[in-house]
Amino acid sequence: MRDNTHFGFREVPLGEKQALVDDVFHKVAQRYDLMNDLMSAGLHRAWKDALVTAINPPKSEREFTLLDVAGGTGDISFRTIAAGGPGTRAAVADINADMLGVGRERAYAQALDDVVTFVDANAEALPFPDKSFDAVSIAFGIRNVPRIDVALKEMHRVLRLGGRFLCLEFSNVDVPGLDALYELYSFNVVPALGRVVAGDAEPYRYLVESIRRFPRPNAFADMMRAAGFAQVSHRVMSGGIVALHSGWRL
Ligand SMILES: C[S@@+](CC[C@H](N)C(=O)[O-])C[C@H]1O[C@@H](n2cnc3c(N)ncnc32)[C@H](O)[C@@H]1O
After folding, report:
1. CB 230 within 8 Å of CB 163
2. Which is it for strands 159-170 and 242-248: parallel, antiparallel or unpaired?
3. How large is the average pLDDT for residues 223-235?
4. Which residues line ligand 1 at a C-beta cut-off of 6 Å?
5. Which ligand 1 atom is the nearest neighbour of the CA of 36?
6. Percent of the chain at pLDDT exceeding 90
7. Residue 178, Cβ neighbours under 10 Å: how many?
8. What is the DSSP code (8-state) at residue 229?
9. How is residue 201 annotated by DSSP?
10. d(CA 20, CA 190)
């Protein structure tokens, strides 16, 4: 077992977790996209490409609507629209008005505001009817949601029969050598970058801690099955830095 206290991990009561997370993304919203590139050395682009390939929007005019939960500034949605045909649409649901605001500006600047919509919503209580989306995704978002089991059930509820759920999330680096390097990078370089670029190290320290607390892939797969997903699988990328989890509503 990892000794969490060694890193000064805070025990955050469930009821306070959402407020802490909201504060983090309120502080970083304007610099979020830049920070993603800096902190992952651009790798987040390849991970997101893998997610969009799995979403597999049709190239044809066939209607296809993605719901991207905790979609923030809309990255996954914009990439899905770019990969799909003229019938592809995307809805970004996020709890943070600042992140959504940056996303709306991006959509407007690219004249995509008619195909990408932004909805103020909590992943634990999605304001959409049952079976209303062809695919549901969540990228680097599920670990921030206080009640993961409730959010998984909600994402299953709004997915149509035969639709695919995809979750991209940080995972566990198990490659000898890389694990120590990754630990050093996460707890030193990431907060330092946060301080220089976003003006505050604390939000990034919290984000790194939340990565270490997230369930291992097999435990998360069990949570997905408990929420109703079938044919649950995952694959790790970049030595286990991230995992792409997949499940279907059958
Ligand atoms: C690390 S960002 C990921 C943004 C985007 N998916 C991406 O990959 O660039 C996490 C996002 O989760 C959102 N979030 C946190 N708790 C949430 C909740 N309960 N419901 C919906 N969104 C939430 C935050 O506001 C933030 O925009």
Report:
1. no
2. antiparallel
3. 98
4. 18, 21, 25, 70-72, 75-76, 94-96, 99, 122-124, 139-141, 144-145
5. 9
6. 66
7. 15
8. -
9. S
10. 18
Q: 203 or 73, which is more confident?
A: 73
Here the tokens at position 109 are 């600047």
Name beta bridge partners: 247. Answer: 165
**Rounded Cα distance, 5 and 9, in Å:** 5
What 3-state class would DSSP assign to 23? Answer: helix
Longest Cα–Cα distance of the chain, Å, equals 54
Helix-then-strand count for the chain, H and E:
10, 7
For ligand 1, pick from 24, 140, 214 the residue to mutate: most ligand atoms within 8 Å of CB. 140
Task: Identify the H or E element spanning 150.
Answer: helix 148-158
Tokens encoding 235:
């694959």
Instruction: Return the pLDDT at 160.
Output: 98
Residue 56 has pLDDT above 90, yes or no: yes
Strand order of the β-sheet with 159-170 is 116-120, 88-94, 64-69, 133-139, 159-170, 242-248, 230-237
pTM of the model: 0.93
Q: Rounded CA gap, 182 and 172, in Å?
A: 10
Q: Answer yes or no: are the C-beta atoms of 123 and 151 closer than 8 Å.
A: yes
- Cα distance between residue 173 and residue 248, in whole Å: 26
* Distance in angstroms (rounded) separating the CA atoms of residues 42 and 36: 7
